[in-house]
């Protein structure tokens, strides 16, 4: 049985195939039934179903708010990502 990879909001992940801009780093912006990703090279945003994301993801590169990410131009810190206000 395959080992499940754990990922969270604002983590940077590597996908199996690179984006058209030839960068393979993606930041997770939204998690739910769908996952919203942002390319760390050009800033392009895509949404895909969680099942498709789990198939296409290769590994987690860095965790949320890792200082390595602060150097990347397209990175948004975890506390700056809009969160729904449920009460």
Compose a concise summary of this entry.
With 87 residues, the protein is mainly β.
Walkthrough of the structure:
The chain has one domain. The chain is 13% helix and 32% strand. It is built from two helices and five strands; from the N terminus they run ββββαβα. It has helices spanning 50-56, 67-70; strands at residues 12-15, 25-31, 34-39, 45-49, 57-62. A hairpin with a 2-residue loop joins strand 2 and strand 3. Pfam families: DUF951 (PF06107).
List keywords for this structure.
mainly beta; globular; 87 residues; DUF951 domain-containing protein; single chain; five-stranded antiparallel sheet; DUF951; 13% helix
Number of strands: 5
How many angstroms does the end-to-end distance come to? 39 Å
Helix content: 10-25%
Number of helical elements: 2
Task: Round the mean pLDDT to the nearest integer and report it.
Answer: 84
The unreliable regions are none
Quaternary organization = single chain
Structural class: mainly beta
Shape: globular
Query: Per DSSP, what share of the residues sits in E-state strands of 2 or more residues?
Result: 25-35%
Main pleated-sheet profile: 5 strands, antiparallel
Rg: 13 Å
Number of domains: 1
The string of secondary-structure elements, in order, is EEEEHEH
Spatial order of the strands in the main sheet?
Answer: 4-3-2-1-5
